[in-house]
Amino acid sequence: MRTVDSRREFLRGLAVGSMVLPAGTMLGQEAIHLGSRVVEAPNVYRSGPAVIENGKVVQPRHEIRVLSDTEVLVVGGGCAGVIAALAAARAGQRVTLVERYGCFGGLWTAGLVLIVLATHVKTQAGLTKCVRGIGDELLQRLLAIKGGIINQGPGMRNPTSDPEATKYVMAEMLREAGVEILLHSWAVNAIMQSNDVKGVVFESKSSSYAITSRIVVDATGDGDVYAAAGAEHVRHIHRIGLVHRLGNVDRIDNSTAAAGAGTRKPGAVTPHPSVRWVNMQGPQGDCLDVKTLTQTELDGRRAVWQQVKALQQRPGHEQVFLLDTASQLGIRASRTLKGLVVPTYEEAMKGKRYRDSVGVGGGGDFLGERACDIPYGALVPVKVDNLLAAGRCIAGDNLMMNYLRLIGPCLVSGQAAGAAAALAVQRRRRPRDLEVVQLQALLKKQGVHFG
Amino acid sequence: MPFRTRLGASVLLGLVLWFFPEVWRLAAPALSPFVAICSRVARHSLAADLVLAMPMLVTAILYRRFWCRHLCPVGLLSESCGKLRGPLAPASGTAARAGSSWPPARFFALTTLGGAVAGYPLLLWMDPLALFGGFFSVARIARADLSALSAVGLPLVMLISIVFPGKWCARLCPLGGAQDLLALTARPRDSGRPRLRLGSISHPRRALLAAGAGTIFAAVAARPWASRRREIRPPGAVDEAAFKGGCIRCGSCVRACPTGIIQPAVEQRDVTGFLAPRLRFSGPDYCLQDCNLCGRVCPTGVIRLLPLAEKNRHVIGIVSINLSECYLTLERECGICVARCPRAAIVDTFVRETYQTTVKVVREKCNGCGACVGICPPGVIRIEAAERA
Questions:
Q1: Which residue has the higher pLDDT, A20 or A187?
Q2: Which of B284, B334, B335 sits opposite A346 (nearest CB)?
Q3: pTM (2 decimals)?
């Protein structure tokens, strides 16, 4: 029992305690019906209901349960997050990966953006593979699966994968590497101690929980964690799409189609001859606005149905059907970090080599056939510490953002963030104080190509 | 004038023009009355900066070939080349025999002036300052084709001078001819005292003939032979005919342009527009929003010196996008032109009926700077010359 200095402090302590305790409690043992039996259920943590105070809805102050403590916490299980988790785990760190949906791959799989762009550059000597390391290992493993990937292998680039195969391979690789996985958890807040990120709060069916961590990798795509942590960033309005896939495309009978018109198959190739995937350049919108997201989702799906209906009415296309629409809306850009380094288009066009390069991405449509250096500084926030960005939301100017958001560069920045996080834990340093040479050595060991 | 002093003057002129290109705008008309008069006559505008030409004009009248004797860098080079084949005969030195007969130089000068009256000063590019400047633009010429011709003037003069020592300055250089004519108006051959007597040109009929021939040729060449095709000229360019006529092809805008998009025109069959600067957009290069250097260095004023805000409003060309080949139409990832445009003149446009986004040009905002041209992955954006009055 703690000695109390004064009556006033004792009373203050009572007041605080009474505020905290009732709001967040274990509700104790609950009965749960399992078929015809009633069994004891595990504890369900509840933070207590929100209340109305002076006409405003207020969530009472409450303690958040810490689910686990880890060395590297990767938020977001898209391609960048998965590769980041793998890179950190393989470097020997304890890693937790949290994903808001039930599968890995993010926009690549749930978003049905199936083409892996910007992986190679074409030179006079032929194709040079830029995206190597764990990203390439993933593509190679997809190649080993029947119907896993197409246009992958020597002499080919920009492969298209099967979303289910990709989800499966990603999960397998994560489990092999011993990454602790948490699905169905939505990151809602950063845990801060002065300028340092100490972990992330998630919302889930098990109510809110926190994971504390030495280093956090923000691979949310939207930069949700760094925004919550107060890191400076840039907002973007970009086109939102809803990708869909068509089935029975191999049954299109072009002999009955009108001559000249309509002989081009809709959409783009997938590993399955009967399936095509169709990209969408939808309306521009603020991807951080839930009403915009809702409207775009509803309108997009209706538009897809109308397009498919129109397609089915074309002669020879009667058998084509809508296989699926993406379960995740196609967000192209929402936030980009204000990083220590902000790669610009002009620099890229001049073929700038960054001293702190963490690898190169392949050629991009508007950048031509030049391998693009991704600087480590693009992953590191200007002010906030113990936090690294990976994937779409890293730093880049208005133009480079359109390159860095492609899967190829995301695989590179993901691996860099994971390796850097591991190194920061090992060396007990802030990410901004890492020796770039050591990071580059680790990445080289992990197979990353530096051009 | 001692050789060393002349060398110093030439080197100084070269250095100043190279490192302070904006001096060129004032230096060329101030030093060459030939350029100043013919270029402005061709544009039918007697701009205030003609005043600049006055000191040299008066000097040329009072002191025959002052420029040639003391300042001309091309003359110095020509003379030095001539000396390669041994010491010059006294009679063949610079301008030594000038005035004793009617050398082609005077025809060139008068023909050019005559042409200028019809809008096209035929041989203005032969001005030594233009030749001198043009030579240095070779470093900025992007393509190995006829555009390199804009730099061959000076080497050609040197070659002529090696083969026929002293002939360039005395008999061919139109600025020399112009100076002779100016000197003659004031000082007939046999009189020692300078005084202005306009009627004293030795062969008035020849003079008239030369000028007339120039006018007629220019009228013939500049009108029907002129290509119908309009080129995209540097920002602030005067109208097409005046531009082609008034430009002396000195290459200073080619040198000045920080993005290297100003290049001499060679692909057209237009005689009058040959080697005149036009814009070529390639790669990421475009006409920058914070730059009006070409206007600041142009010695003839055919690229007007516009304040930045006005220059950015000046429509260089009209942009057109072939939407059927646009990546967005093909549902490919792009929209780069929208992100690139420094004037926010290209916007994403969502079409609800087709549920597709396409790009659209906002005409009021676009000045045709070309930022979107080289960056477009399928290359479907073009800039076409603007119709200007």
A1: A187
A2: B284
A3: 0.84
